[in-house]
Design brief:
Blueprint (H helix, E strand, L loop, with lengths): L7 H5 L7 H6 L3 H8 L4 E5 L3 E6 L2 E7 L6 E7 L18 H36 L16
Antiparallel strand pairs: 1-2, 2-3, 3-4
């Protein structure tokens, strides 16, 4: 049985795979669907609001968790042509509440670290006192004068 040989002439007419850049330019099913149905939109409800999708954009309208003020967010999903387009959670706080919440978290973190350092210092001081060593004073080398 003879195996047919591929000649240079055959290779010239063969289909070569597209590069990644060329493949992005080819219209996908999503692009064709959006071109054929330009005015179609979808809506659905979330835990705190509603989302509607129109012409490759998603718009979220909801209420703030703390003050019940309006929270909005828009996302461009037109560039996501393959794979999932759920790009994370929708916001639950309006900008003023988000700022206040981040400041409250930062203050709590500072207080926690401050308490932890005070506890470590007290533990260190009791150990030094137990062994008869002088207290540590910032900027003063106590080991020179012991």
């Amino acid at each position: 049985m003879d195996i047919p040989r591929i000649t240079a002439e055959d290779r010239k007419h063969a289909v070569s795979p597209l590069s990644r850049q060329d493949a992005k330019r080819v219209a996908s099913k999503v692009d064709r669907y959006r071109q054929e149905n330009p005015d179609e939109f979808h809506t659905w409800d979330t835990a705190r609001g509603s989302v509607f999708q129109y012409r490759g954009w998603r718009f979220y309208y909801g209420s703030c968790r703390d003050c019940s003020d309006l929270v909005t967010k828009s996302r461009d999903i037109s560039r996501y042509k393959d794979g999932p387009t759920n790009l994370g959670r929708w916001p639950v706080l309006c900008p003023p509440c988000r700022t206040a919440n981040s400041q409250r978290i930062q203050a709590a973190n500072l207080a926690r670290i401050r308490a932890l350092r005070a506890e470590e210092k007290a533990k260190r001081d009791t150990q030094r006192e137990k062994y008869g060593l002088p207290q540590i004073t910032p900027g003063y080398r106590s080991d020179l004068y012991a």
